[in-house]
Amino acid sequence: MEKNTRTIIFIGDGMGGLPIDGLDSQTTVEAADTPAMDRIAREGACGLMHPISPGRPAGSDTSHMAILGYDPQKYYRGRGPFEAKGVGIDVRPGDVAFRCNFATVEGRTVVDRRAGRIDKGTDRLAEAIRENVGKIEDVQVIFEPSVEHRAAMVLRGEGLSHEVTEIDPHDPGVDYLESRPLEDAKDRAGAQKTARVLNEFVRRVHEVLEDHPVNEERRSAGKPPANIVLPRGAGTAVDLESLKDRYGLDAAMIVEVDLVRGLGKYLDMDVIRVEGATGGLNTDEMAIAKAVDEALDDHDLVLANIKAPDLGGHDGDCEKKIKAIEKVDRALGYLLDNVDWDRTTIMVTADHATPCAVMDHSGHPVPIAFFGHGTCPDDVERYGERPCAKGIMGHLRGMQIMDVLTNMMGRAEKFGA
Amino acid sequence: MEKNTRTIIFIGDGMGGLPIDGLDSQTTVEAADTPAMDRIAREGACGLMHPISPGRPAGSDTSHMAILGYDPQKYYRGRGPFEAKGVGIDVRPGDVAFRCNFATVEGRTVVDRRAGRIDKGTDRLAEAIRENVGKIEDVQVIFEPSVEHRAAMVLRGEGLSHEVTEIDPHDPGVDYLESRPLEDAKDRAGAQKTARVLNEFVRRVHEVLEDHPVNEERRSAGKPPANIVLPRGAGTAVDLESLKDRYGLDAAMIVEVDLVRGLGKYLDMDVIRVEGATGGLNTDEMAIAKAVDEALDDHDLVLANIKAPDLGGHDGDCEKKIKAIEKVDRALGYLLDNVDWDRTTIMVTADHATPCAVMDHSGHPVPIAFFGHGTCPDDVERYGERPCAKGIMGHLRGMQIMDVLTNMMGRAEKFGA
To answer: ipTM value of the model?
Structure first.
């Protein structure tokens, strides 16, 4: 067992795709200029990955869970707990967590889902919510603001369930919703109680915020008041073993998305913030690459995610997606030049496909390539969906990745004698 | 989500095979002249499919179940319920169903398993059975004739089990059998009761039919009397969710085999009969193709199966099998020319291999190709076991097909956020 090996999981968010007519039937990954990825494929071991299983479109949360070896089909109970953990709430098993928007309503009608992208005063609004809506029935309410109009909320108490419909109507100009138990709720009583508490939360928050000084100031300044909070994305927190406990690896995460960052905190990984990592196309990919390289000094595993490719996919803008993929490639180029590959393994993949033609996540497999320590290179010449399909790694599922990586690191335990 | 997409599952029954010396070591699919399949492979995404799992020979029933996403390892309890449903009996969960032959016996010796392929009068014989053998102990007996000597029978009552040996000896010239509980029956008491009722059924049916006017007439005409019914293929009916409920898809089935048709009815698919679809080598494949094209007008999913290739395999007649495969190809050619592929995905495969050298189903993987909407084409040039093995789809199991297809249709639900 070599104990000084390290591994990098490098994820281009939503980087997988489908052939595009205008790109000569290439995918965006295939069309992009990616000398680093191509070297990784050429000198490494390639394959395709199904984050969940063939044909199932994965979310970023479920895919990262699977890649880190936590079976989402067993443990995933909604995104709320990761969001809440991401903004710093100490989420505990059994809690039901929500992501929230500060929004503007007139009567019940949502006139602005983001309250004019409010960027000041939400700490004071949150304090008012904490003081006045700290408890509903026997349920403790924990509320924490995040950046701009975003926030997270946790309900803590007996007999709660995430199986409730959302308050947020997702569209402006319509009424916000009354939460109800999901039709197929397994814990019906829990869902009923949770929906009741949630509706009461929204009602009382609206009362507290309507004439709050922050909103009086906003009205005077001609800005829409943040006079309500719209919860969505309910999730029940489950007890997940830390990554350190599960694999004995000191792990770090360098990502741009709160949701994934929340998962990292949930797994007790070191979540490292990087200046200039914006989550957009203007992100500083070299700063991310340097941070990964530095994190390797005192971590066994570093997971990095660059968000930009996913944005191009969701926008259906393949030029934007290609530019984003080329940024991912530059970060990889830095790592190729600076990391000690005699004791480091890197895996380059996507957490899911976001084909420009689909403008959403799809269930197509994504390319994957392993490079460096412990790999068995094949004769694939380029990174991409079709080239990688011919690689030695075959078709892997997300849940198999940690076994494959710990083996390449020489840290997998023998099963048997 | 694109909601106006459609998908075709096109199955050449038993079309998979093994290399044949006399065919220059090609399989029958590889040796056949199949311009349509080859175009589908060339412009589509290829792979191999294991209907159940590697090496397990599948029946047509278990394979079609798996391809439609109903796990046969969980839900399959014998073919009887599908046969019974196929002939129009309202099978209910808990029923034990059998397929039956009208046959000719002298004493206990079966002299003709098909009663001279009797084609008239079985409705009157069935009526006599219903009148005289409608109930045994506390068990209701439901009996329905099908084409020629075929029929189906259902036992309905408390505490029954399909785990019983057959009455039908499957060979002429030997005695018909006494049903007994299977040695490894899990529900021993249920199997004992069922065997007892079944033996009593056969005894009383023989009594009722022996001197029935229909048989008196047959004897006068020098024909063997249909003086007994030989049940086989016991199966317990289970509660299967309809395909519409499971996937939200309006589905049709255009097949030539009662067994598969019964499955279609069981899943509440629209089972469409096509004039000229004989189930033999003389079948009108163009009528089937046209029916598939028409069914796409008001269905989201159409499953078609052409039976003929399987017959050639069972007969060990590779010339016959090649001719049958070329018929399948002509049907596919019609579809290639007439379907709107911008919104349609087709999957072409076999439900199992029936290699001519084996003359029965085998557990070898079968070629699979996806073409049209939502596919990621690879560089496979021809349809066949060996060419498709190099395709981007890798090795799929039957149970993964519906996930893969609904994803290609853009109708798969995202798991996670």
So the answer is: 0.91
